[in-house]
Design a protein that fits this description.
The protein is built from 15 helices and 15 strands. It is of the alpha/beta class. α1 runs parallel beside α2 and α2 runs parallel beside α3. The longest helix has 17 residues. The chain starts with a strand and ends with a helix.
Length: 375
């Protein structure tokens, strides 16, 4: 089984915190970009080695800016060239301001069966400084509208660690999502990325994000409140009701193969990783003249080992010792660090898995980096 990710590098406007690859001035080459995506889909058909595609994910950027005809063209090109499973998960990332009854109907008609809605917050003041294109009212109404049109597999995004954001504000956001009755939530801590408007405001002390203790407290409240509502944490930033996990993202964490289509998209086939040009016009040009539009890195055994540690520790299942040993047997120093972290109650080791405790999840990246093997 494998997955295909399609990166749509279009946005209406630039969010103050975002450093993803996208453009707000894309209309002049919109058609050329869609055509280039289709060409790449066709040209990279051998990458997945005839594996059955069980997930297709439109990310961005803002994929909900695409017309139903554009979505259909891309999906048809995948169906023509790849073997698709009988019941594939096909996800579309959508902004609340793009969600209308007409669009929802058209999305279902072309095959979209899962929505990932970028709500972020229900407070109008948060949405304004984030420079989000939607309002708090649209955040409140879009999920109900999607459900009315038959979308039962819905995920929503929330951000915590915001400036001027109290624990009570966060509890209200969480409860609002719980009240929606949706089955999946992705929650991310606000990160101040270089070369964003937010980084400039923080440097100038115009905005003060939550400190580390506040972020940790908000994270712990998130896990606790969702757990009470029957929404379990199955990955550091992802929570779902029973059997409602994102199949596509879960495949990333399980180390399954995936093909990334579009500028800046990444691909993985077990022993190598590739990444596309992060420039829209250059991507289109290189596709057209059949020049290299992606770079490839062959992963060493150490790289594969570290990759498994990094992605495995993010999940509730943890790292499979059988898989780890199949790459290379961990050395004495690795087990010394493991035992130390067990004493600190950051992780648990069984006969089959290594997994993080609740307190360990707050230090997931640090723990993973400590267990990495150097090349």
């Amino acid at each position: 089984m494998a997955g295909i990710y399609i990166h749509i590098p279009f946005c209406k406007q630039r969010c103050s915190y975002c450093d993803f690859h996208f453009s707000t001035t894309f209309q002049s080459y919109r058609q050329s970009m869609i055509e280039s995506l289709v060409v790449e889909i066709e040209k990279r058909v051998s990458y997945l080695e005839n594996k059955e595609v069980e997930t297709i994910y439109f990310g961005g950027g803002t994929p909900s800016l695409l017309t139903s005809d554009e979505l259909k063209l891309i999906l048809d090109s995948i169906s023509d060239k790849y073997t698709i499973s009988k019941f594939p998960e096909i996800t579309l990332e959508a902004n609340p301001d793009d969600i209308s009854r007409e669009k929802l109907v058209s999305w279902k008609q072309v095959g979209i069966n899962r929505l990932s809605i970028g709500l972020q917050s229900f407070r109008e003041e948060d949405l304004k400084w984030m420079n989000r294109a939607h309002t708090s009212e649209e955040s409140l109404t879009c999920v109900a509208l999607a459900k009315e049109e038959g979308f039962n597999n819905i995920s929503v995004d929330l951000i915590y660690g915001l400036p001027n954001f109290t624990l009570e504000d966060w509890r209200k956001n969480i409860q609002t999502v719980i009240d929606f009755g949706i089955n999946h939530i992705s929650a991310y801590c606000l990160t101040v990325e270089d070369k964003t408007a937010l980084s400039k405001w923080v440097s100038a002390k115009k905005i003060i994000p939550a400190n580390e203790d506040e972020q940790s407290e908000q994270f712990e409240v998130l896990v606790s409140e969702l757990e009470k509502a029957g929404i379990e944490q199955y990955e550091i930033s992802n929570f779902s009701k029973l059997n409602a996990e994102s199949k596509h993202n879960s495949n990333y964490w399980k180390g399954k193969h995936y093909l990334g289509i579009g500028p800046s998209a990444h691909s993985f086939n077990g022993f190598s990783r590739s990444w596309n040009i992060s420039n829209n016009l250059q991507y289109i040009k290189n596709i057209k003249i059949e020049s290299d539009w992606f770079e490839t890195e062959i992963l060493s055994f150490n790289d594969q080992f570290n990759e498994l540690i990094l992605i495995g520790l993010r999940t509730s299942i943890g790292v499979s010792l059988k898989k780890l040993n199949s790459i290379q047997e961990p050395n004495e120093n690795f087990w010394k660090k493991i035992k130390s972290m067990e004493k600190s109650e950051w992780l648990v080791v069984t006969n089959e898995f290594i997994f993080l405790t609740k307190s360990g999840r707050l230090k997931a990246d640090y723990i993973a980096s400590e267990l990495f093997i150097s090349n």
